[in-house]
Design goal:
The chain is an alpha+beta fold. The protein is built from six helices and four strands. Strand 3 (105-107) and strand 4 form a beta hairpin. Bound molecules: FE2/S2 (inorganic) cluster.
Length: 137
């Protein structure tokens, strides 16, 4: 139910929690617990683009923390936040199954490996241009 709502809206609004609880005969606290336990659920609308930065061991060893700092400094979105212009949401993920190509990221659902700060800038620019041109997904 929560997955369906998030797929439709991009997040699960707080207002939906009581309805979900009623439908499942759960407490609102149970629903809140599930929503906040799993990293994939959002309780606020995401930005135009969602960047998931891998924080698992291999990617950490290969520089994911530097990528995280770069995104925060250059693109204005710290981990778990959306940039003020609403363009970018940055979320953690724990292994994309792409460890051989660490550091790995997932941008708008697509996995990329061996991502440097420069490559990440290029990927973000490309994603914005695709959206502007109407060629993005
Ligand atoms: S640790 Fe990052 S893809 Fe596996």
């Amino acid at each position: 139910m929560m997955h369906a709502i998030q797929e439709e809206l991009g997040f699960v609004p707080h207002e939906a929690m009581q309805r979900i609880a009623d439908a499942l005969n759960w407490s609102r606290a149970d629903v809140h617990g599930v929503l906040t336990y799993y990293h994939d659920f959002r309780t606020a609308p995401p930005g135009c683009h969602v960047l998931k930065l891998c924080r698992a061991e291999s990617c950490q060893a290969m520089g994911s923390e530097q990528l995280e700092a770069h995104v925060a400094n250059k693109h204005g979105a710290a981990m778990g936040e959306t940039s003020a212009d609403g363009e970018l949401t940055v979320e953690p993920i724990y292994c994309l199954g792409n460890c051989a190509l660490s550091p790995a990221v997932q941008l708008d659902g697509k996995v990329h490996g061996r991502v440097s700060s420069q490559r990440l800038d290029a990927l973000l620019l490309q994603a914005k241009e695709q959206k502007t041109n109407g060629t993005g997904s």
